Each structure stands twice: as C-alpha cells, then as structure tokens.
C-alpha cells in the first residue's frame, strides 16, 4: 500500500474518565476492505462514527484521499454509511430511499432517476423500486440500505454490523454478494463486526481491536496462523490454550511445564516465567504414534460435538486452560465419550505468549 485512502492518525476519544480509543492509527488502501473486529466496548463502532463525522475526536486526524476531514461535519464528508438497523425511511418507496442522499446533495433531478435505477440494478432490486419498505424482506432492506449509501458515489463506505439482523443462510449469502459488489466497484470500505467468521469471509485485512487499541492488523490468514497476541489467538478462530511455566530454554525454543505434561514451543522467554501456550484445533490429532517433532499430552475427554464433516472434541486442559480438537467426523467411533486420550500436534504449530496477555 503506497498511499492510504483512509488515514487515521493518533485518534483518541473518551467519555468522562473512560477512554474508548487511545491514540489509534489506521491506514486503509484504495479499494481495500478492512474489518474492525472485537468484543463489545472495544471501540470499533466509536471509530466508525468518528470517521463518518457523527462524533468528534478528542485528538488526532482523519483524512480521506489526502483531504483532512477532522473538522468537517458529516454531510460534507461524502462518506456512505450503512447502519445496523438500516435507518430506512418507512414512508418512502425503495426508489425514494435510494434517492434521498442524492437529493440532499442537490443532484439535478434528471440525474437522480438514472442513478437510482443503475444503483438498484447493482444490488438486484430494480423491480422493487416502487415498493414500500414494509413490503421487503430483511435481506432486501439491507440491500436498499447499501444502494442508498452507494448512490452518492462515496469516497468511502462504512458498514456497522449490517448483517446482524439476518438469519445465518441469508447473512452468508449477503456477505459474498456485498464483497463481490464492492470489489467490482473498487470502493474502499470499513466494516464493523464482532463475528470472526464474517470478518474472515469479507476482509482483505482485519484489525483486531481490544480496549481502544488495535492488537493486530493483517490479512485473515496471517492473524489466524500467526496471531500477534493471546487476545488475537482467542478472538479470531478457536484454540486450545494451556497455562504453562518455562522449564528450560534451548536457543529459539522453550520447554514448558503444563498440567498435562511437558511440551515444546518456539519463543524467547526466561526460565521460570509463566506463559500461555496455544494451538489451533485442526492442528491436533488423536492417538497418533509418538514423534520427536510433535508435542503429545494425555487428557480426559469432556465432550464431543458432531458438526457434520467435523467433530469437535473438548478435553480437560487444566485450570485456566481450554482444550479443543477439531477432527474428521469419521474418527468419532474411535473416541470414548469419557476417557483419557492422547492428543498431539506439531511443535511448529505451538504458539507461546506472555501469561499477562489477555486470554
């Protein structure tokens, strides 16, 4: 990314004694789709509203395409926003809803009708133009909200959990459709979500947020395979986590004492330090012959969850830990409902973090 289309620098926001955002930086490239992912209260919606101009930052700057928007009111920013509740006007038709922003900007009437027609065609709702909002399904209303935001030809599109009210099947369909549409149009977008799967499906990069800061900003695969913090490990994807203490150090590797036995991981820690060891569930195998390049622990199976082609096996990982293995469902008959099983994974797949990191 040579030059940021959206450039956020040192932005802070507090409400009284509570700091919501703390000197946050974020650069988004032209045509890039970025997701802000994090738990409720982490600051992601506040950041979106600051960019939209619906809130004022306490400090820092926000620029789009090289233009400083920090002091500009929302209606002068040329930014499209799709809200969680869509914020459609129930007394207006579909076409009138899409035309609203254009008319507010003073677009000539002769152009409005053509832009509305073209935009509704993009979201596959051309035939719905004369209908009222009450006559539409949830998915159709969501597409009207997107069309209204796109009609003004925004320099940036902001989306605040727009799929949260949809059922799972429709939500997954809309994710793919919107991702395709925005890429075809080359629109830069920032998307707020607390749904990790949604973020991985939609995004070029994900900003994992926690306590008003970005813990990691990277492509979905990078965050999943190489989380920078224990919080990123936990929040993006499932994981097995073991509380551990460094027993010995050997170059780039450490031997770790856990409640399930000793394991090896890569990292630079002092002997005697408490750490957190993690591994992704699909990396774990059961009852596999011992190997010098693998960690192996014996643990009691707590539960089994059948998910079609997958079997999630929950096992006792000791105090403060969590044990999850994702197996092929064909392995289900071989596992006891309640008994001790040997779980193993490659040493290279072991992730080690400081114990004080959020987990």
Summarize the helices and strands and which ones pair or pack.
Blueprint: E1 4-15, E2 18-29, E3 33-37, H1 44-52, E4 59-64, E5 67-68, E6 79-82, H2 94-104, H3 109-122, H4 138-151, E7 156-160, H5 168-185, E8 189-193, H6 196-202, E9 205-210, E10 213-218, H7 220-225, H8 230-235, E11 240-250, E12 253-258, E13 261-266, E14 274-279, E15 285-286, E16 294-307, E17 310-315, E18 323-328, E19 340-346, E20 351-354
Parallel strand pairs: 3-8, 3-9, 6-7, 7-8
Antiparallel strand pairs: 1-2, 1-4, 4-5, 9-10, 11-12, 11-14, 12-13, 14-20, 15-19, 16-17, 16-19, 17-18
Helix pairs in contact: 2-3, 2-4, 3-4
Core attributes:
about 350 residues; alpha+beta; Rossmann fold; OB fold (Dihydrolipoamide Acetyltransferase, E2P); 6-stranded mixed beta sheet; 20 strands; elongated
What this model shows, in words?
This protein has 359 residues and is α+β, with helices and mostly antiparallel strands. The protein folds into two domains: 4-233, P-loop containing nucleotide triphosphate hydrolases (Rossmann fold), CATH 3.40.50.300; 238-354, OB fold (Dihydrolipoamide Acetyltransferase, E2P) (Beta Barrel). It is 24% helix and 36% strand. It is built from eight helices and 20 strands. The chain has helices at residues 44-52, 94-104, 109-122, 138-151, 168-185, 196-202, 220-225, 230-235; strands at residues 4-15, 18-29, 33-37, 59-64, 67-68, 79-82, 156-160, 189-193, 205-210, 213-218, 240-250, 253-258, 261-266, 274-279, 285-286, 294-307, 310-315, 323-328, 340-346, 351-354. The chain has a six-stranded mixed sheet, with helices on both faces. It has a five-stranded antiparallel sheet with strand order 13-12-11-14-20, with no helix packed on it. The protein has a five-stranded antiparallel sheet with strand order 15-19-16-17-18, with no helix packed on it. Helix 2 runs parallel beside helix 4 (138-151). It starts with a strand and ends in a 5-residue tail after the last strand.
């Amino acid at each position: 990314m040579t030059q940021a289309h959206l450039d956020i620098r040192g932005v802070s926001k507090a409400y009284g004694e509570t700091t919501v955002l703390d000197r946050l930086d974020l650069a988004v490239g032209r045509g890039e789709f970025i997701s802000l992912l994090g738990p409720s209260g982490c600051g992601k919606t506040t950041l979106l509203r600051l960019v939209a101009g619906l809130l004022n930052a306490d400090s820092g700057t926000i620029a789009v395409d090289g233009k400083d928007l920090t002091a500009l009111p929302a209606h002068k920013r040329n930014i499209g926003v799709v809200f969680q509740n869509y914020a459609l006007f129930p007394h207006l038709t579909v076409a009138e809803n899409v035309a609203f922003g254009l008319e507010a900007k003073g677009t000539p009437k002769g152009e409005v009708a053509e832009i509305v027609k073209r935009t509704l065609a993009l979201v596959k709702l051309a035939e719905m133009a004369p209908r009222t909002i009450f006559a539409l399904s949830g998915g159709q209303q969501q597409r009207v909200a997107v069309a209204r935001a796109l009609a003004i030809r925004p320099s940036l599109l902001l989306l605040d959990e727009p799929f949260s009210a949809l059922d799972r099947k429709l939500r997954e369909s809309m994710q793919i459709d919107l991702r395709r549409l925005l890429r075809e149009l080359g629109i830069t977008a920032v998307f707020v979500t607390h749904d990790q799967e949604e973020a991985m499906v939609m995004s070029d990069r994900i900003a994992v947020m926690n306590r008003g800061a970005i813990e990691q900003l990277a492509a979905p695969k990078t965050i999943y395979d190489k989380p920078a913090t224990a919080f990123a490990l936990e929040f993006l994807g499932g994981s097995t986590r073991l509380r551990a203490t460094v027993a010995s150090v050997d170059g780039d590797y450490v031997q770790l004492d856990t409640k399930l036995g000793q394991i090896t991981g890569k990292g630079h820690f002092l002997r005697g330090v408490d750490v957190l060891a993690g591994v992704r569930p699909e990396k774990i195998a059961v009852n596999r012959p011992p190997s010098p390049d693998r960690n192996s622990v014996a643990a009691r199976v707590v539960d089994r969850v059948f998910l079609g082609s997958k079997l999630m096996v929950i096992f006792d990982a000791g105090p403060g830990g969590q044990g999850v293995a994702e197996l092929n469902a064909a392995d289900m008959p071989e596992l006891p409902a309640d008994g001790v099983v040997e779980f193993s994974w490659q040493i290279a797949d072991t992730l080690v973090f400081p114990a004080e990191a959020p987990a």
